Amino acid sequence: MAEDSDIxxxxxxxxxxxxxxxxxxERGELSADEEQARMREVERALDQCWDLLRxxxxxxxxxxxxxxxxxxxxxxxxxxxx
Length: 82
Hints:
Shape: elongated
Number of helices: 3
Strand content: under 5%
Largest sheet: none
């Protein structure tokens, strides 16, 4: 299972990708549709990463094994924020 640092590295990578997508769109390298499609994928992945990190921290705080936390389906995680 991934460690917290691995999850944070993935989060940083997705945030950097979001910034790059915006920049590429502004430079005219990506259409709005292309940018939005990939942004939705990146946002879903970010939601899953943050959820997994929160699960791990909650388990650790409760004295449980954070290693048993698992990524939940994007549809389930996205419903938390709406």
